[in-house]
Predict the 3D structure of the following.
Amino acid sequence: MAALVEMKQITKVYPNGVVANKGVDFSVEQGEIHALVGENGAGKSTLMKILYGLEAPTHGEIWLRGRRVEIPNPHRAIELGIGMVHQNFMLVPSFTIAENIVLGSEPRKGRFIDRAQAIAVTEELSKTYGLQVDPTARIEATPVGMRQRVEILKTLYRGADLLILDEPTAVLTPQETDELFMAIRTLVNQGKTVIFITHKLVEVKEISDRVTVMRHGEVTGRVATRDVTEADIARMMVGRAVFLQIDKPPVQRGRVVAEVRNLGYVAETGRPVLRNVNFSVHAGEILGVAGVEGNGQTELVEVMTGLRPATTGEILVDGKPVQRQSPRRIRLSGVAHIPEDRLTNGVALDATIAENLVVDRYNRPPFTQRGVLSPQVIRKHAETLMQQFDIRAAGPDALMRSLSGGNMQKVIVAREFSAEPVLLIAAQPTRGVDIGATEFVHTQLVTKRNEGKAVLLVSADLAEVMSLADRIAVMYKGEIVAILDNGPELTEEEIGLYMLGVRRQEVVTKAA
Amino acid sequence: MNMKGMTKFVEPVRIIAVVLIALAIGFVITALVSKEPVQAYTALLTGPLPRLSFENGFEIKNINRFGNWLEESTTLILLGLAVSIVFRARQFSLGAEGQMLLGALMTAVIALKLSLPFPAHMLLALAAAMIIGFLWGLIPGLLKAYLSVDEIVSTLMLNVIALQLFDLLLFNWLRDPAAGFVGTVPFPTSAVLPLLIPGTRVSFMTILMLIAVVVVWFLMARTPFGFELKMLGANRKFAEYGGINTKRVIALSMAVSGILAGLAGAHLSMGLLKRLTINLSPGLGFEGIVVALLARNDPRWVLLAGLFYGYLRTGAQIMERSSDVTREVVLIIQAIIILLITAERLFPFVQQWVQLRRSREEVVVEAG
Ligand SMILES: Nc1ncnc2c1ncn2[C@@H]1O[C@H](COP(=O)(O)OP(=O)(O)OP(=O)(O)O)[C@@H](O)[C@H]1O
Ligand SMILES: [Mg+2]
């Protein structure tokens, strides 16, 4: 069978000298679901951007349906039936979903966009492929899961036969991931071909037919999925055996480090988002927060870190109230924060790695002494952390923008862990991070716990929470409906019942 | 491979290329409107330079033109520094004009209404200009930081108010009724900036300006405040998350910027005119934006950009006086430069193209 796409000897050198792809051969067959995996910075996105015409290869050829093609820009890729959904979405926030989908080739009525037609087209597409969206909702008001579907529909609208999905599940809840997989199967049944980038090996096993593994810009493996185990793929990716399950000594709970009492938060819209939240985090434990995304976890973290003001209630860190204080005061009380939305809060893309690493400490010695900032010290500090946390980039002066997604996350993790906090709040800390780095972050979280630090871990990945947390608080509609001891007898199903609001513990709301 | 050296190198080359293209277009336009374009354009390009003459022994001629260049540049650099501070923080304050006017106004008040001995009088007048600039910048800064009032609107409004205040005080209080024009009496020498180059109006302010360049560079590159400015400009949410008090930084960025604009105003009154007149120099405040854009908000480049732009403006005046071409031509050249440099879309593209070619060559080298 002739391959649908064949990329031959692709080499890509970025202007800053990074060699992202080195003589890569990559092929995809008609009608398959092809997983592309590899560590952060392995060059997966780059290879796909080349296929989609976003980056020009320095070397190499692309063959499509047996013919050599040039793809100088995405416009040409779309003509050839190639569509891509990016790791970071590219939608217009103030437009409606229907408008976003037709944007670029709008149905017209005279000189104007035919809105009704756009909505009809959207509904039609949505039905055909089983991807549910609300055509008239504005993007800014829709959850990530739906944005994802919008991106996919947009490429389908433009007539894509080959869909490239760059880490589509990184931002999805387990339920949304299941829905996405169903949609992908529908697509393939209708004759489409899908390239699927992910860091989650479970997903590779579940959905793909074949896997290509990349490492340091080269292809290190090409196998049929059914012939390998997750551990095999992991080994191909990292070059060594990876511990997918983490070892944890029994919990040694110390004093209460953080205490949240009757916390309430009402959004600007008047909607109560957090209601009467009570819990405490002890030294030496990881408290996991589980819940379907959008049940107040984001707000809980932002209120605790000073990014939003609490409406009612108290937050104590080491006995001192910190509610409604500035992020700096809260950080000075010993709280570090790995934010959920790293592109918005966690990094400045147009600043250097070195600068990103000191945003919380630039004004203290040794970075600032007698009022004078020392770029050398800031650089040295970055070099140390880059080595310690294995951040792969051209150097401390590289712009954040040039880093791969996983390496950006490592920069954040490096900064927050090195802040030596008493309470570490980690929101979705391994989202979009490769298995090597995930293992690293998990080990680090457990190390902090073993050192006697308090860790609050908020994650949409239930498996992550269950493998790391000592206790699990479940959020539902802005409330904590249960705080469960994590142990072998606790099952995913049981947590699920709380997550969906079917069950609740009565004691929780009173005290913890 | 020296990649970093390369990127450092590309930026200046890019800017110089832009300037050359703009000058070439300028010449084409001159050729279209002038009967003797070469002569006219030579006046523009070499006018501000002094000439050495050996006719009656050694002599430097046209020193005043050279002086004009430095005077003009001093003001422009101060304004460019002012604008680059706010632009660095991504605050689009357009208030330099009003801050400059009030700076000049305050110097007149101090110069004419107080009598003090020399350095004290001058220094007090300078301080007054800086303080009023600071305050006039603080207002839109506070409005933006705490009430989210758009700074473009508020600074333009404050410019209008500043102009009205200026006229009001000048007409009703400071004006010299005996003069044949609307202006004050000359400032007492105790409140005039000491002269630096005889035969010109190049004064102590040019030294202050050089100090200001160093200070602003230091502020941006070597102080926590400079770091805060940059982070605020790069991503406000990130700055907040990191613990930076962004409201304070927004307000301060505009206020500190005002200090420099105030100084520019003091230069006009205490250095160049040595009095206050109506229509001090309409629109000059906005020229700082051009300088800051040319310099990409880097104080070291502001110095060069200000000298360049001052040269162009002085040359234009000379061309206007000594040929049949009007000053409009230079305004066109100026507009072209702004367009080319701000054409973010066009130029990164060229830059990429250059680098792409380089990386191609490299791979070939590596392979071979
Ligand atoms: N625009 C760019 N300019 C310079 N270097 C870049 C650019 N984009 C990516 N890189 C570098 O190229 C390498 C490959 O990046 P790429 O984004 O392809 O990785 P990836 O495999 O998609 O990683 P991730 O899983 O983290 O998304 C990285 O080292 C990255 O820093
Ligand atoms: Mg990627």
Summary: The two ends of chain A are 62 Å apart (CA to CA).
